[in-house]
């Protein structure tokens, strides 16, 4: 791809629109909005700089960007959204650093832009702290265990129960019982690892387990066909698995394809095995 002033102009305007949308989001605390407002003003200055060099660049409507980042904050949280923005920021820093060598006449201004882009990352890291990120390991433990446990139970129920209500109650009770034991195990594990707040970590594990249990059990109380209920349940399980894979891949800067393949393969493999045993 050829990086031209018009390209950088559009990218900076897109970043400005994203930060402005976040700064106006009612879902975020005031201290977060203030950080994003400052970043938006800086990105707008960068946009004006590139527009001055390349003329009036064609900027698209900001409404899709505003809606997109508002939804990302709602579904995935602030940290996830910032990680996506940081990827663009890092690419921009690399290209601007390269341009410093090619355009010595613009070196001072470009170096200033690079410094501001790097300050964005530092200010985000110091200002944003989410419980869901801090206790991501505990949440992932509860989610993954519940997915394997419940999909296995419901896969086996296809050959064991004719009633969706009986199958639903079986999975629900098994899930609630397992969530208690998992919470206790998570507390002991966190305490032995000398975690800062083992009780909170255990609570996140247990809560994640219960939420997954409720979501996977729900189709069995709404549908009369065991096959349809199982299809909806397994679709829900795959969706949850993909959500966690995407979340951990972006936050951990890992390969998304690998995370999705591992999570989906494990889930579907266990379900198939227990379905065959249930028959």
Description:
The chain is mostly helical and 279 residues long. It has eleven helices and no strands. The longest helix is centred in the middle third of the chain and has 29 residues, at 164-192. It is elongated, with a radius of gyration of 24 Å.
Largest sheet: none
Residue-averaged pLDDT: 79
Uncertain runs: none
- Give the fraction of residues assigned to helices: over 70%
Order of helices and strands: HHHHHHHHHHH
Cα(first) to Cα(last) distance is 55 Å
**Shape descriptor:** elongated
- Output the number of helix runs: 11
- Give the C-alpha Rg: 24 Å
Q: Find the structural class using helix and strand composition.
A: mainly alpha
Beta-strand percentage? under 5%
Can you count the beta strands? 0
């Amino acid at each position: 791809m050829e990086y031209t002033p018009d390209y950088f102009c559009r990218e900076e305007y897109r970043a400005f629109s994203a930060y402005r949308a976040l700064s106006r989001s009612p879902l975020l605390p005031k201290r977060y909005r203030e950080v994003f407002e400052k970043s938006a003003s800086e990105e707008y200055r960068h946009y004006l700089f590139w527009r001055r060099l390349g003329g009036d660049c064609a900027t698209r409507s900001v409404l899709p960007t505003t809606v997109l980042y508002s939804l990302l904050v709602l579904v995935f949280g602030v940290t996830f959204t910032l990680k996506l923005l940081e990827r663009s920021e890092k690419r921009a820093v690399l290209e601007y650093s390269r341009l410093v060598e090619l355009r010595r006449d613009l070196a001072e201004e470009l170096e200033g832009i690079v410094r501001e882009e790097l300050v964005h990352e530092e200010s985000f890291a110091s200002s944003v702290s989410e419980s869901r990120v801090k206790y991501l390991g505990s949440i992932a433990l509860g989610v993954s265990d519940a997915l394997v446990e419940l999909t296995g139970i419901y896969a086996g129920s296809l050959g064991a129960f004719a009633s969706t209500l009986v199958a639903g109650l079986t999975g629900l009770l098994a899930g609630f019982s397992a969530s208690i034991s998992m919470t206790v195990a998570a507390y002991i594990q966190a305490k032995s690892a000398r975690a800062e707040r083992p009780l909170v970590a255990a609570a996140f594990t247990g809560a994640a387990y219960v939420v997954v249990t409720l979501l996977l059990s729900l189709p069995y109380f709404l549908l009369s066909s065991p096959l349809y209920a199982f299809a909806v349940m397994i679709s829900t399980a795959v969706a949850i698995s993909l959500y966690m894979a995407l979340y951990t891949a972006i936050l951990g800067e890992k390969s998304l394809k690998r995370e999705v393949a591992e999570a989906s393969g494990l889930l579907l493999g266990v379900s198939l095995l227990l379905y065959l045993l249930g028959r």
